[in-house]
TrEMBL record:
SUPFAM superfamilies: Mitochondrial carrier (SSF103506). This is Solute carrier family 25 member 17. It comes from Hucho hucho (huchen). The chain crosses the membrane at residues 12-35, 74-92, 112-132, 208-231. Keywords: Membrane, Repeat, Transmembrane, Transmembrane helix, Transport. Pfam families: Mito_carr. The keyword Cytoplasm does not apply. Solcar repeats lie at residues 14-99, 106-199, 208-303.
Length: 317
């Protein structure tokens, strides 16, 4: 087998497909369980007039004002986006790993590099889905900020059509610049997760327990989320499409100026803590979701390899 054929087989491999499917199913299941927490986080990020309160208090307000099912508004487009996003990320990450490591031991720096590369591919491919799901998730919400314009999308495809007609194709990639910066979030998360997993396995010399995997996933996501949260807030505002972007010729310069403006404006209005408005809800949601996702991912992947009689590759450990 030639080197080119060998690399092709590594990239388009059964193992990478199993990891991608397991990651997608695990993330969809976990997000469904903790979806209301994400609703609370998003409201606090984009609605500047809404007071920062505890997550249960925010959810209670939403239910009282908008109905019992309001915390699950926009569930379908979010789940579709998440499924595609995690499939792409896990597939790219494990394909790159198989191709680059080739049986060698992984290191935190290699995990970070592979996680970043997988994240860039993921952002460029799936950002339009996330723009649409942000709009649909917030459609019909009762905002404290009167400047927010209401939208009227009939579904995922209608949202795509309306955004392209009203704002141009480029609007589907709103928030791409902060999203590219935010590839550090999953990259740092995977680096910490894989590093802790390797360390713990070297200590206990056995397969990790479900609780151990859950805790490692929670720690990894908590660190990654806290470090990158201000950029996540900017990303949500840009995806929502209510911020007037600059009209310079360079899209990159426009994006950079928008990110800097939103960060500085947030600090001026609310102080440094304003950059972390909604962090409690985000941490609660994202840490629990990531922990459950990693647990389900590990179980689904190992069970699939076992059922199909395929030995799990050493690089996945």
């Amino acid at each position: 087998m030639s080197t080119r054929e060998f690399r092709f087989a590594e990239v388009f491999s059964y193992e990478s497909l199993v990891h991608a499917m397991a990651g997608a199913v695990g993330s969809v299941t976990a997000m469904t369980v903790f979806f209301p927490l994400d609703t609370a986080r998003l409201r606090l990020q984009v609605d500047e007039k809404r007071k920062a309160r505890s997550t249960p208090a925010i959810l209670s307000e939403i239910v009282k004002e908008e109905g019992l099912l309001a915390p699950y508004r926009g569930w379908l487009p979010v789940i579709c986006s998440l499924c595609c996003s995690n499939f792409v990320y896990f597939y790219c990450f494990h394909s790159l790993r198989a191709s680059w490591l080739r049986g060698h031991k992984s290191t935190p720096s290699r995990d970070l590099l592979m996680g970043t590369a997988a994240g860039v591919v993921n952002v460029l491919v799936t950002t339009p889905l996330w723009v649409v799901n942000t709009r649909l998730k917030l459609q019909g919400a009762k905002f404290r900020n009167a400047d927010i314009r209401p939208t009227n999308y009939l579904g995922i495809m209608d949202a795509f059509v309306q955004i392209i007609e009203d704002e141009g194709v480029g609007a589907l990639w709103n928030g791409t610049f902060p999203s590219l910066l935010l590839v550090l979030n999953p990259a740092v998360q995977f680096m910490i997760y894989e590093g802790l997993k390797r360390q713990l396995r070297s200590l206990v010399h056995r397969e990790l327990l479900s609780l151990e995997v859950f805790l490692i996933g929670a720690i990894a996501k908590a660190v990654a989320t806290t470090v990158t949260y201000p950029l996540q807030t900017v990303q949500s505002i840009l995806r929502f499409g209510q911020h007037k972007q600059h009209t310079d010729r360079s899209p990159l310069l426009n994006s950079l100026r928008s990110v800097m403006y939103l960060l500085i404006n947030r600090v001026r209005k609310y102080g440094m803590l304003g950059l972390f408005k909604g962090l409690e809800a985000k941490l609660l949601q994202t840490v629990l979701t990531a922990a459950l996702m990693f647990l389900l991912y590990e179980k689904i992947a190992s069970s699939t390899f076992r059922v199909m009689g395929v030995k799990r590759p050493a690089s996945s450990h």
